[in-house]
């Protein structure tokens, strides 16, 4: 075999050196896409200008402004950040944001997964999905107004408490006349626990009348009858329980005047040395009758007659306001999660599901070991998207939380607004909260970008 000598021609049998390959149709000065760089810059310039004006510049300005005082003229360094982490309202906002991030995305994603899987095989699944997704068509402000009414304390206005009170009253008997009490000079006196007891014993043949006040006439039953004096009955203690109030005034205290209403259904107990010896219930005309065993005992009206009416749960109170608002968020965004997960579920190979069933797996095992792993990329997209969304939640908290408990439901976006434009406005602290919110979003964004790159490599 021959080789080439130094400075000489190549020996026979040696292949010629490789020549650089030119791209067909590509002229000098053009990019891989076949366009000149300045043309690409011209097309990208409007987007870059908008990106710089609407994103880059505000972020940079917020970072710089967070290092100055409220007037923007005095440099304070990191003092604004120190105030954020020492202010009680800001710490409450940080804690609530952590609760939002931990609860709302996970619950919304889980409900979306359940809805998507359960509605896959039913005939009316499309209609159900439409109904669940419908809240996404309204704004956060409108949803906040809706749920502010849903969570109203008054059961006559708030849907949540109307349902809750209805269930409660089904299993617990309501009081007959909440707020009723004896008059100023009545023989009845408070005896503990909300009950009232006479100061003198009763006797057979002497009517023991029990006048009460404190019940608005409008709160009486529409068919309330007029009170009637109790007649004497042999061997019984009788009396009348009535509302000692005459419309228009002019009535006599502790006397059953014409037109005064009976308090039917009131329970009357005869108590001797702390023991109940007899019980009676006032009739439609307010009269009652106790057996002879009640003679010499005191009469007691138990607290069950006067307990305030159950008004449900204080949904917007300090302890429940944040879970209540999270519930309204889930109502809106579970449909969003369902639609995305249902789209991913449509691409799952049915052969794998059928193979698992043939191998003996039940539906729960198929769901847990086949469906969920195959939907993991979609679930990650939904979860990360909702995490970013809840970090900047503002509208629902601002609209739903009443003024008395707004501090208990505070979140960073709302705290930023209040510190920037509220009564104690401080633009420096407001921008510091904005920077903190940005720093909280960055890890989630980085996780999302990393996931996207990993998916592309696959």
Strand and helix map with partners:
Layout: H1 37-65, H2 79-86, H3 88-118, H4 125-133, H5 140-150, H6 159-171, E1 181-182, E2 188-190, E3 196-198, E4 210-213, E5 237-243, E6 267-272, E7 275-281, E8 287-290, E9 298-301, H7 321-346, H8 350-358, H9 363-374, H10 376-391, H11 395-400, H12 412-421, H13 427-457
Parallel strand pairs: 4-5
Antiparallel strand pairs: 1-4, 2-3, 3-9, 5-8, 6-7, 6-9
Helix pairs in contact: 1-13, 2-13, 3-7, 3-10, 3-12, 4-7, 7-10, 8-9, 10-13, 12-13
How would you sum up this structure, described in words?
The protein is of the alpha+beta class. The chain is 46% helix and 9% strand. It folds into two domains: 213 residues, MetI-like (MetI-like fold, Orthogonal Bundle), CATH 1.10.3720.10; 125 residues, no CATH class. The strands form two sheets. Strands 2-3-9-6-7 form a five-stranded antiparallel β-sheet, with no helix packed on it. It has a four-stranded mixed β-sheet with strand order 1-4-5-8, with no helix packed on it. Helix 3 packs across helix 12 and helix 12 packs antiparallel against helix 13.
């Amino acid at each position: 075999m021959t080789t080439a000598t130094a400075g000489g021609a190549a020996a026979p049998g040696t292949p010629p050196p490789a020549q650089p390959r030119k791209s067909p149709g590509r002229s000098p000065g053009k990019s891989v896409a076949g366009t000149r760089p300045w043309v690409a810059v011209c097309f990208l310039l409007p987007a870059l200008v908008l990106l710089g004006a609407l994103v880059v510049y505000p972020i940079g300005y917020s970072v710089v402004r967070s290092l100055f005082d409220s007037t923007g003229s005095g440099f304070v360094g990191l003092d604004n950040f120190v105030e954020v982490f020492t202010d009680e309202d800001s710490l409450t906002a940080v804690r609530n944001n952590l609760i939002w991030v931990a609860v709302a995305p996970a619950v919304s994603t889980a409900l979306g997964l359940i809805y998507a899987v359960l509605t896959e095989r039913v005939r009316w699944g499309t209609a159900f999905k439409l109904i669940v997704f419908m809240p996404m068509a309204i704004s956060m402000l409108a949803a906040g107004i809706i749920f502010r009414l849903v969570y109203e304390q008054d059961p006559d206005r708030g849907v949540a408490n109307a349902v809750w009170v209805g269930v409660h009253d089904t299993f617990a008997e309501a009081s007959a006349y909440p707020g009723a009490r004896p008059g100023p000079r009545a023989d009845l006196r408070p005896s503990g626990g909300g009950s009232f007891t006479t100061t003198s014993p009763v006797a057979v043949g002497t009517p023991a009348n029990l006048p009460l006040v404190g019940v608005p006439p409008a709160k009486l039953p529409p068919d309330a009858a007029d009170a009637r004096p109790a007649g004497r009955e042999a061997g019984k203690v009788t009396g009348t329980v009535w509302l000692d109030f005459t419309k228009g005034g002019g009535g006599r205290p502790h006397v059953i005047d014409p037109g005064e209403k009976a308090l039917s259904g009131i329970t009357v107990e005869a108590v001797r040395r702390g023991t109940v010896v007899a019980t009676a219930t006032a009739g439609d005309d307010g009269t009652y009758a106790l057996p002879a065993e009640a003679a010499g005992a005191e009469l007691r009206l138990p607290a069950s007659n006067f307990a305030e009416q159950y008004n449900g749960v204080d949904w917007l109170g300090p302890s429940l306001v944040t879970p209540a608002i999270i519930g309204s968020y889930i109502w809106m965004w579970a449909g969003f999660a369902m639609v995305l997960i249902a789209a991913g579920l449509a691409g799952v190979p049915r052969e794998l599901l059928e193979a698992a069933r043939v191998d003996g797996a039940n539906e729960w095992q198929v769901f847990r070991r086949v469906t969920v792993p195959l939907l993991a990329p979609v679930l990650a997209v939904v979860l990360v998207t909702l995490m970013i969304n809840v970090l900047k939640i503002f509208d629902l908290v601002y609209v739903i939380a009443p003024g008395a408990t707004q501090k208990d439901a505070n979140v960073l976006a709302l705290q930023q607004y209040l510190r920037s434009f509220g009564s104690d406005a401080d633009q420096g602290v407001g921008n510091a909260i904005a920077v903190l919110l940005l720093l909280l979003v960055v890890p989630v964004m980085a996780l999302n970008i990393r996931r996207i790159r990993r998916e592309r490599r696959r």
